[in-house]
Write a structure and sequence with these properties.
- The protein is an alpha+beta fold.
- It has two domains: about 260 residues, Periplasmic binding protein-like II (D-Maltodextrin-Binding Protein, domain 2, 3-Layer(aba) Sandwich); about 220 residues, Dipeptide-binding Protein, domain 3.
- About 25% of the residues lie in helices and about 15% in strands.
- It is built from 15 helices and 21 strands.
- It has a five-stranded mixed sheet with strand order 8-9-10-1-11, with no helix packed on it. A four-stranded antiparallel sheet has the order 4-5-7-6, with helices on one face.
Length: about 575
């Protein structure tokens, strides 16, 4: 089997954490919203206009080209899918639940076939019925080259998917998607995939009526299956105006509350301007939120002295890990004791300070995020405390043949961000110096940096990296990074250590057969702990997202799936 191209989105996430990961883009899972449901004692009511102020435009507003999490939940107001995320705070929000389908799907004995039945009474914005054929067509059009950009899983998972080019050229469909009747859809997979219910949350599973499909122009007025419809789409998502879909029925949709009558999304704004407008909360901005703009350390310090503002800060956690990566093909990182020495030498306290402080980053000693849905299993194979253990690091260096220390190069991005930028690199450099390790910093501009770390022939021996998952499970977290069959020689390779361990590969396959997601999570956690013994990376921290919302916004829900305020739950005065 050719290497999977799973999680191309994570590379995109690595290019724009604040937009994707912070929006979905996904540490204590029990503390996901600083202000709970909003104004105490006031039940949310329908009506009013909600404004969304964002930095990045909601471009390519076509279900074939989007991820469910894209745009901070905006797409899910228009596009319903077979399954969706549970719209609850914290850990409960990391669960997958039915949406258009009656359940999470019925697998066959080995999870290579999944069958879904649609609910009764589903209609589009024009009142016409939604059928299983519409969902099949929506998926098929996502394979067309002109509509690329969405999740890659279906090409990997569906029988025949790797060679399919969409329906536009010859009108052919995918034989691995069957629609025996208007309410039933069956998927035939190349291998067992117990997490198919998670995949069915992706926007590619949104129904598209073939008669209304006008290719690349469909994004201007996609046909809604959700509680809102697109009225205006200016400048490729720079401004979106959404109004109620009068044919949407809450009886078929337990997840989206759809309180506002109208939602206006304004993008392309400066981050400082967004936070200032939300802070002031005058006029329409009193009923405004952001789904992609974080508060920085200085802004948090100012807000901390103003209780009225502090009460309007939502705190979110998304499944993301920032870490030091090794390429064992490069000396001296082929020596496990050198990698272990670095793990002991790292001062996580200084790294977290560089990342904005404890309010914006939480220390990590596991590769998996600290959330139950991922299968988080606590371990610390190289306990260095908060500030590092220089003595233990020196001891290991001596055993490795470097009694007088060594000199290495750390590659990082020159972009001034708190995850992979110069500040974090300098903090690592200073910590390793105490252990006798001289670190030379190699800063690369963002494009060159990403090309280096994801290209096998260019992968540095030691670099800063990060990883986020498309859904809250250990599968899309561990498999792309540690499955040897996913090493890509000529393309984007995420297995930085080029680990190809038969036992690891086999365990990944065995977990993928499980349809009991709780049992699978336990196995992912155990596998994380086992891989961690090899010191192929040094987990540093998990980011925390802090975002303001307007003074007239109520019913704040922030789940561990997305890490951002869920606008399908928001009400305004």
């Amino acid at each position: 089997m050719r290497p999977s191209v799973t999680l191309r989105r994570a590379a995109a996430a690595a290019l724009g954490l604040a937009v994707v990961a912070g929006a979905a883009a996904c540490a204590g899972p029990e503390d996901s919203a600083s202000s709970g449901k909003g104004e105490a004692g006031a039940a949310p009511q329908q009506g009013g206009t909600l404004t969304v102020l964002n930095s990045s435009p909601q471009s390519d507003f076509d279900p074939a080209r989007l991820y469910t999490s894209g745009g901070g939940n905006v797409p899910s107001l228009i596009f319903r899918t077979l399954t969706t995320r549970n719209r609850e705070d914290g850990a409960e929000g990391a669960k997958v639940v039915p949406d258009l389908a009656t359940d999470l799907g019925k697998p066959n004995a080995d999870a290579t076939e999944w069958t879904y039945t649609l609910k009764d009474g589903l209609t589009y914005e024009d009142g016409t019925p939604i059928t299983s054929a519409d969902i099949k067509y929506g998926i098929e059009r996502s394979f067309a080259a002109e509509l690329s950009g969405g999740a890659p899983y279906l090409r990997d998972w569906l029988v025949g998917g790797e060679d399919y080019e969409g329906p536009y050229k010859d009108g052919k469909g995918l034989d691995s998607i069957l629609t025996p009747d208007a309410k039933t859809i069956v998927f035939k997979l190349r291998k067992p995939e117990g997490e198919f219910p998670y995949l069915a949350t992706q926007t590619q599973f949104a129904p598209v009526p073939k008669a209304k499909d006008d290719g690349t122009k469909y994004e201007n007025h996609p046909v809604s299956s959700g509680p809102y419809r697109v009225v205006t789409n200016k400048n490729d998502g720079e401004e979106l105006v959404l109004e109620r879909n009068t044919h949407w029925s809450a009886k078929t949709d337990e997840e989206r509350k759809a309180y506002p009558d109208k939602i206006v999304v304004k993008s392309g704004l400066d981050s400082a301007v967004i936070n200032q407008r939300l802070s002031t909360s005058s006029g329409a901005d009193a009923a405004a939120v952001t789904t992609d703009t974080n508060l920085g350390p200085a802004e948090l310090a100012q807000i901390g002295s103003d209780k009225s503002l502090a009460d309007r800060v939502g705190t979110g956690h998304f499944g993301y890990t920032n870490y030091l990566a090794f390429n064992p093909k490069v000396k001296p990182f082929d020596n496990p004791k050198v990698r272990q020495a670095i793990a002991y030498a790292v001062n996580r306290k200084s790294v977290i300070n560089a990342a904005g402080g404890s309010a914006l980053a939480e220390p990590a000693t596991t590769f998996l995020p600290e959330q139950k849905s991922f299968g988080y299993t606590p371990y610390d194979h190289f306990p260095a405390g908060e500030t590092g253990d220089a003595a233990k690091a020196k001891e290991l260096l001596k055993e490795a043949g470097y009694p007088d220390g060594l000199t290495i190069t750390l590659t990082h991005s020159t972009e001034e961000n708190r995850e992979t930028g110069p500040a974090t690199a300098t903090a690592v450099q200073e910590a390793l110096k105490a252990a006798g390790i001289t670190v030379k910093l190699q800063g690369l501009e963002p494009n060159a940096y990403n090309e280096a770390r994801w290209t096998v022939a260019k992968t540095p021996g030691f670099f800063i990296s990060r990883w986020g998952a498309d859904w809250p499970s250990g599968g899309p977290f561990l498999a792309p990074i540690f499955d040897g069959r996913q090493i890509v020689e000529n393309g984007s390779n995420y297995n930085h250590a080029q680990l190809d361990d038969a036992a690891v590969n086999t365990e990944i396959d065995e977990i993928n057969k499980l349809t009991d997601l709780d049992e699978a999570a336990k196995r992912w956690g155990a596998l994380d702990a086992k891989i961690g013994e090899q010191a192929l990376d040094v987990p540093l921290f998990h980011p925390v997202y802090k975002r303001l919302y307007g003074k007239d916004v109520k019913n704040i829900v922030i789940s561990d799936w997305t890490g951002v305020l869920d606008i399908s739950q928001v009400a305004v005065k």
